[in-house]
Amino acid sequence: MKARTAFAAVLIGVLAVLSALVVRPFLDYLLGAMLLAFVLTPAQRRLEPEVGPRLAALGLVALTVLLFVGPIGLFLRVALSDLGELPTSLSDLPTFQSIERVVERSFGVRVGPRLDQLLGGLTSTLAERSSGLASAGVHFTLGILLLLFLLYYLLKDGDTLVRWVRDVTPLPRAVQDDLYAEAEEATWAVLKGHVLVAALQGFVSGLGLVALGVPDAWFWTVVMMFMAMVPIVGVAPVLGGATIFLAANGRLLAAGLLVVYGMTVVAVTDDYLRALVIDKESSMHSGVILLGVFGAAYFLGAIGIFVGPIILALFKETIEVFSAYYDLG
User: Fold this and answer.
1) Residue 7 forms part of a structural domain
2) Whole-structure pTM value
């Protein structure tokens, strides 16, 4: 019996390692599909009695493409087009010419040639790595397709998967029930208090850019929606850059209005939403969220911004459930 148990353990361990190696190249897309499936499962359960599981899942995947994948693709397209339109020489920019003249008169140093040389080196580096960028584009396309397929099957057969996990988990049913309940509550709390608040704060900040006529305002709005998920950093770098841009172009009144808008409307919106959502539904400290965002983003890439705080929240709730049932203290 011991030999059989040891053989089974070794076999399962080897297959687990091989499975992890198979999943690793697309782990971020798998986590993204799982996160979207979690968010869309309540809608799936409401639609299934009306149209059936397949049609409901297909409709929700189409909605995902419309609301998430489509805007992300548009965002990347705008970013790449702007990158392709970068000037080959900073001396071609009127604003830089004015700054260069001021620096030269004040310090007797010409910064233009040195920065042009730096910009030329950056351009040549990007050209040399064009094949790597093409490979990354292929990987991204395959990952998005995989995400959509996994999302469809997780919505359609998610309950079957959960039942299988429950059957093979060697824990009492009561412990599993508490684990799933706490995990669901913690995940929703992070999504509402971290993702939703950041998206709304970025959107409100973007309205100020649109109203003041900042170029590519909607592009920077999407950027701020992601940056707002990073505690401490937030939307300040984009708003600060936009303020400097307006001031450098002689629009001092618009720059002042943007500063006032950021310190009043954006700040009040952020404080109000966080007090309304986070304090009531989430007990996670801002430092834990910051650690989850930075650590998971380093390990998993962009999807880590979303799943990092969730992983730490699930770890905390798991310890509390096990401590309650098995007196770990």
Assistant:
1) no
2) 0.69
